[in-house]
Design goal:
- The complex is a heterodimer of chains A (about 525) and B (about 45).
- With about 525 residues, chain A is mainly alpha-helical.
- Chain A has four domains: about 5-60; about 70-225, no CATH class; about 240-310 and about 470-535, no CATH class; about 325-430 and about 440-450, no CATH class.
- Chain A is built from 24 helices and no strands.
- The longest helix of chain A has about 35 residues, at about 370-405.
- Chain A is extended and about 105 Å long.
- The relative contact order of chain B is 0.08.
- Chain B has one domain.
- Chain B has helices at about 1-10, 15-35, 40-45.
- The interface between A and B is medium-sized, with 39 and 29 residues.
Chain lengths: ~525, ~45
């Protein structure tokens, strides 16, 4: 016997033979049988403990290279600059910068999503007013007498800093049957207040912009974009997967490290499918060039994958605006916003006059038929205004679109447009994908933002909305010029996952080969971690 | 003989990484085998 492995195998075989030959007929036999097994078990438990300790010590002796750069500091810098970019975005106004659009979306869709708490949404609005130094009172909530009654109670609770909104819920119950659209009218009241305090909000945002720019030494929006671009480059370098990341992926079972062993069929197939035979990977210069090319291809494929997941967005936009593009005078289409806005102002003015009469009535005339009629009329007018605001929203976004609409509008431009208007982005997601779960919409919205902000996007910058483009062909042609064996069908949507998998296998294999560790060592570390977890 | 056996038994340093893991696997599987083959004396009675 040369080594312990051979000894163990042989010993186990012998012991099994011994065990099977032991008598087990009588009780005494059985007791002796168990005693023998116990004795062998004791010895083998001791072997197991010793071998396990050795495995752990052996794993610790493998020197893992330290992480080369700290990505956390750079990530913080990027997050900070992205916030400054959001604040300075010239496409939108104080309304979006204050975050009113997100709250508006929530209150607008309250009934669809069954939010647990209308109170949180209303408090959200009030918080934003207060941050800008505006403290609203019950008198500000005069859209209808019902809104006034509800919000008076709400503000009392808020002021008292109580957790219990029971009184507010009671009022809601009594009001609801006279005014089922109460929540919609609360929304309109907030809209009117936001418009009323536009100047204050604008000053607040301007002050915030100035402070943030001074603190971060940013001179303008374009300067911010330059800084952000540099930060993204640093982030790209810091976050490129290195050997430490690969080890973590292997030991956490995120990747199957066996696939990276030199004899693995998966590894061999990945290399053969993408790298032409003529490429000499033993030449460090060639290897470095191929890896650099594959990193770029990986980014492009991931970008294309994101593009596919939002293809419906771009198609819908194209269908809506193709006709407008072909019109000679687009200005005709932009007149709608001003017209509906004037209509809203006029009708709110009329409603205000009616409310003055209602609010002036004495409590004892509560059952007066004329008062009842006036209240019903105020609710009717508020309902009309609600529908008018829906038209306003459509015209508002259309107005923003027309400002950027042209025949060469790119996917990248459209991503930026929707990114700037959270309300309309979520509305589009809700309608296009027919989703009624708010968490699902938020998830898609977040993915959309990540796609819009992705600094590695290069393909979509050149893809026009109003023209057909064969993106797989463009990508494939580019990389064939760089000596990668790839064609259009590798980039078919159903094949992207497999393509990314092959690229990752090649990139990781090359990184492992260039590191002080071998695949076997990483595989060993992963196996030992499994053993530690089991026990 | 016993001393030599003891020396050989724990001389794991000569094993390759995959052989080390194989040793552990063999021991573990045998321990499972022993547990499964013990006779339940209460059942019989």
């Amino acid at each position: 016997m040369d080594n312990f492995l051979q000894f163990i195998k042989s010993d186990i075989e012998n012991k099994k033979t011994q065990i099977t030959s032991l008598p087990t007929k009588t009780q005494t036999n059985k007791k002796k049988f168990n005693a023998s097994l116990n004795s062998i078990e004791e010895k083998y438990n001791s072997y197991r403990v010793n071998v396990k300790n050795y495995l752990i010590a052996k794993k610790k002796s493998i020197k893992v290279p330290e992480k080369t750069a700290s990505a956390d500091e750079i990530k913080e810098r990027v997050t900070n600059l992205e916030y400054i970019k959001f604040l300075l975005n010239p496409s939108n106004t104080y309304f979006e910068k204050m975050g009113f659009d997100s709250l508006l979306y929530e209150i607008n869709n309250y009934y669809i999503f069954n939010f647990h708490s209308l109170n949180d949404i209303i408090n959200g609005f009030l918080d934003k007013f207060e941050v800008a130094g505006i403290f609203l009172s019950a008198d500000d909530f005069d859209y209808t007498c019902y809104v006034h009654e509800y919000m008076s109670s709400f503000l009392d609770v808020r002021r008292s800093k109580s957790d219990s909104y029971a009184k507010v819920s009671e009022i809601f119950e009594t009001i609801y049957w006279s005014n089922p659209e109460l929540i919609e009218h609360i929304e309109l009241n907030f809209r009117k207040l936001i418009r009323h305090y536009e100047k204050k909000f604008t000053i607040y945002i301007q002050t915030l912009q100035k402070n943030v720019m001074d603190k971060n030494n940013i001179k303008s929006y374009s300067h911010c974009l330059e800084q952000l671009s540099d930060a993204y480059i640093d982030q790209n370098i810091a976050t490129i997967e290195d050997i430490t990341d690969i080890i973590n992926l292997a030991t956490s079972n995120t990747i199957e490290i066996e696939q990276y062993l030199p004899e693995s069929k998966t590894r061999i197939t990945a290399f053969q499918s993408l790298i032409p035979e003529k490429i000499d990977l033993s030449n460090p210069k060639e290897l470095s060039r191929i890896c650099s090319t594959l990193e770029k291809l990986k980014n492009n494929v991931e970008e294309f994958d994101s593009f596919i997941s939002f293809k419906a967005f771009f198609k819908d936009f194209k269908e809506k605006y193709s006709e407008v593009i072909s019109k000679e005078n687009k200005k005709d289409d932009s007149k709608g916003l001003s017209s509906v806005f004037q209509d809203i102002i006029k009708k709110e003015d009329e409603l205000g006059k009616l409310n003055k009469k209602i609010f002036a009535s004495k409590p004892e005339s509560k059952n007066d038929p004329e008062l009842k009629r006036q209240k019903a009329e105020s609710v009717h007018r508020a309902k009309e205004l609600y529908n008018l605001y829906k038209v306003y929203d459509t015209e508002y976004f259309k107005d923003k679109v027309l400002k950027v609409l042209n025949i060469s509008l790119s996917v990248s431009d459209l991503l930026n447009l929707y990114y700037s208007f959270d309300y309309f982005k979520k509305l589009e997601i809700q309608n296009l994908y027919k989703i009624t779960d708010y968490d699902e919409i938020r998830k898609i919205s977040k993915n959309f933002d990540l796609f819009a902000l992705n600094p590695r996007n290069v393909v979509t910058a050149g893809v026009p909305i109003f023209d057909e483009t064969n993106i797989p062909r463009i990508i494939a042609n580019k990389y064939r010029l760089n000596n990668i064996d790839i064609d259009e069908k590798d980039l078919a949507p159903e094949n992207l996952k497999s393509l990314l998998s092959k690229i990752n296998i090649i990139l990781r294999s090359c990184k492992i080969d260039a590191s002080p560790l071998s695949v076997e060592q990483i595989w060993f570390m992963a196996q030992v971690d499994e053993i530690i977890k089991e026990n | 003989m016993k001393n030599n056996e003891k020396k050989r038994e724990f001389d794991l340093s000569k094993l390759k990484l995959n052989e080390l893991l194989e040793v552990y696997k063999e021991i573990n599987n045998f321990l499972k085998y022993l547990k499964e083959n013990k006779i339940d004396l209460e059942e019989v009675e």
